[in-house]
Amino acid sequence: MKKNMKILMLSASMFVMTLVPSTLKADDFSGQESYYIDFCSRPLQTQEDADTCKAFKAWYREQAANYQAIAGEIGEKIAALEGDISAAGLQVKAYETQIEDLNNQITALEASIAEIENSIVVLEEQIAEKEADIEERDRQIKDGMVSMQSYVGVNAYIDIIMGASDLIDMIRRISVLQDITAYEQGNIEELNKQIEQLNFDKSELDRLKQEAIDQQALLEDQKESLQAAKDELQRVIDELHAQQAILEEEKRTNAQAGSDILSIIPNLSETVIGNYEGSNGFIVPVSGYTISAGTWAYYGTNTAHLGLDFAASIGTPIVAPANCIVAYANNPAPSNGGYLGNWIGWPYGGGNTISLIGEVNGTTYMFSFFHMSQQPFPVKAGDQVNAGQVIGAVGHSGNSTGPHLHFEIVNMGSQSVADVYNWFQSTADFSGGSGWNTSSACSARGWAVPCRERPEDMLGL
């Protein structure tokens, strides 16, 4: 019996040794990082196991240095791309200014055309009135001529002249008759000149209207050409942003592999979560906000944006969206020191960040908070927080363009809060294993977890 027991123990020992070879080369760890991180995070049974983990830790430290170097190279590539993006963006701005100027000119021309059309209507009414007046005057003149002719027929014209008292009176009477005829003729000529002028004004306004229409058509063509150029430039910018997003993902992935998680590998223990209870719903984490950018893409662009941006004043309180466990809390960056290309914080560019893990309606989620204020966090990793409890404040830290909270939600499925917490402590992966691109969206993956949720939908915004 004892002999059989010894054989059994020897077999078990050999089985364990086959699981973890006593002599391993550095290359044997490559591609099995997750296995050895998990293996070395548990209580070890033999000195050989301890030596294996020691060798793995040394190898992993070397890899970390390599990953940091790779991340630095990628950072330089991003900086170069950002220069190109900035140049293209400036050109787009120049085109936008020209397009705005053209739009203003078009608006002015449209107003001018409307004014011309109104003037034409008024002139047409005036012409009609003048024509009626001319017709009336013409009738009166003709009637006067007929009357004069009747007087002439009975020698009334001669009687008027011959009725003069003397030669001077006769000359005066002849002059008066001539003045009457000249006056009527002058009226006719003046009216004809008015008609001619009004007709000219009308034709001139028609010409101006056509000229304005022609100019508007020309400006519309120019606007279309400029818009096409702007669209092309925007396409280039979108492509550059897409390349930047890929490089940023590579940077975060490589930097993540090289992050300082080695110190917790030997002594990782189960986190005590006490009497934790999940929540029945979500709470919006910020009050008094405006949404400055939605999830999946920045407004008006195709540039990936994996969370929801709550724009608010620096110092605005941030609360837990549900009952959670704090998985990560670090504030290395100034509260108001953010700018594009500032990669301080973890994950890269996050500035001051917090990660929470909580269960809502039976599903476990990871909640990420980026660009927070540096003011002392009221919570730390391992703490339990209740929905609505203050965990920090809005800031402008890291890769940020202004004060806001960038908020992300990752669906971790049916895993327990404790399991997800321990997994996070081994990986420091704020993406929850889903990755850093829009293809990780739950809607794109058919809700295969882990996947990214759209915070607007979860919060009912």
TrEMBL record:
Coiled coil: 85-140, 188-253
SUPFAM superfamilies: Duplicated hybrid motif
Signal peptide: 1-25
Domain of life: Bacteria
Record GO terms (molecular function): metalloendopeptidase activity
One Pfam family matching this protein: Peptidase_M23
Keyword Lipoprotein found: no
Residue ranges of every copy of the M23ase beta-sheet core domain listed in the record: 304-414
Keywords in alphabetical order: Coiled coil, Hydrolase, Signal
Domain Peptidoglycan hydrolase PcsB coiled-coil: 127-198
PANTHER family linked to this entry: MUREIN HYDROLASE ACTIVATOR ENVC, PEPTIDASE-RELATED
Protein name: Peptidoglycan hydrolase CwlO-like protein
Species this protein is from: Dielma fastidiosa
